[in-house]
């Protein structure tokens, strides 16, 4: 980097209103073999991918908590993940950051002919969902993804991927007609878990049980990830209530027993219902 180039880069990097060009340049500098950050230079697509997933969940968490002051920062963290991957791709000669933006723009224009094309804009959200899936199916066909389940990302959270796989299968008629059959299957899977003879069998049957639970959520139009997050939050609130009550008695959970903590758990439930 020449002195002139570095000066221009420094000006952009320290410009508080530099926007996307500033962020892209910061990432380029972090990955610069001449003076970059050793940690950033060691990273690969594979090592960064878990952080990308984590940042997406932190965005979802901020939204779930309606922490709007935090959301800007979390979205920035997620955006930085895209910039990080784009810089590594640029170094490898795969594509540039602008290629990502252009690809996404092309996709959105293609999938919204009722907004950007000559298709009738007067359609319901449900009809748009149907049309969206038809367009996506055509895109998969153009990529030689002929299988019904092709393109469902392996890296998705397991519950989310289960729902997506089931939705794909349902489009070609492979689905129970009502929740009655799903509930029957659920009872069957619970029994199979209970009767599993070995840890390996229990592992497999437990997975089957979770898969059916995802199917039940789909039939009831429940987001299983969101439902489990809500259950986690409820458990956290109630256990913190137990800790607070024990602390008021001069005790810690390790000084208590299950019977006492269960009584306090019921008190937490009553307190929640009273508010």
From TrEMBL:
Catalytic activity annotation: ATP + H2O = AMP + diphosphate + H(+)
User: Which residue ranges does the record assign to the NTP pyrophosphohydrolase MazG-like domain?
Assistant: 43-116
Enzyme kind, highest EC tier: hydrolase
**Keywords assigned by UniProt?**
Hydrolase
Q: What is its EC number?
A: 3.6.1.8
Looking up Gene3D superfamilies in the UniProt record yields: MazG-like (1.10.287.1080)
Entry GO MF terms: ATP diphosphatase activity
Q: Which CDD domains match?
A: NTP-PPase_MazG_Cterm, NTP-PPase_MazG_Nterm
Pfam families the UniProt entry points to: MazG
A GO BP term here is: TTP catabolic process
Record's family? Belongs to the nucleoside triphosphate pyrophosphohydrolase family.
This chain's protein is named Nucleoside triphosphate pyrophosphohydrolase
Transmembrane intervals? none
This protein's source sits in the domain of life called Bacteria
């Amino acid at each position: 980097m020449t002195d002139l180039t570095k000066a221009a880069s420094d000006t952009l990097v320290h410009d508080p209103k530099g926007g996307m060009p500033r962020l892209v340049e910061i990432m380029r500098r972090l990955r610069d073999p001449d003076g970059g950050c050793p940690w950033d230079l060691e990273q690969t697509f594979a090592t960064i991918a878990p952080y990308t997933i984590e940042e997406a969940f932190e965005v979802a968490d901020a939204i779930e908590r309606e922490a709007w002051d935090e959301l800007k920062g979390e979205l920035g963290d997620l955006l930085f993940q895209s910039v990080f991957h784009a810089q590594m791709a640029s170094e490898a000669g795969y594509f540039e950051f602008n290629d990502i933006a252009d690809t996404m723009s092309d996709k959105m224009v293609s999938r919204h002919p009722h907004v950007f094309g000559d298709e009738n804009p007067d359609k319901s959200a449900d009809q748009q969902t149907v049309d969206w899936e038809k367009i996506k199916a055509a895109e998969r066909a153009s990529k030689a993804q002929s299988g019904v389940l092709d393109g469902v990302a392996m890296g998705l959270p397991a519950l989310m991927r289960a729902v997506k796989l089931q939705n794909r299968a349902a489009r070609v008629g492979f689905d129970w007609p009502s929740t009655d059959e799903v509930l029957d299957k659920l009872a069957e899977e619970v029994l199979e878990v209970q009767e599993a003879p070995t840890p390996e069998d229990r592992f497999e049957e437990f997975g089957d049980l979770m898969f059916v639970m995802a199917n039940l959520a789909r039939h009831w139009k429940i987001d299983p990830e969101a439902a489990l997050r809500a259950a986690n939050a409820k458990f956290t609130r109630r256990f913190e209530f137990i800790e607070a009550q024990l602390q008021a008695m001069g005790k810690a959970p390790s000084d208590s027993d299950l019977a006492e903590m269960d009584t306090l758990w019921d008190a937490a439930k009553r307190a929640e219902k009273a508010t």
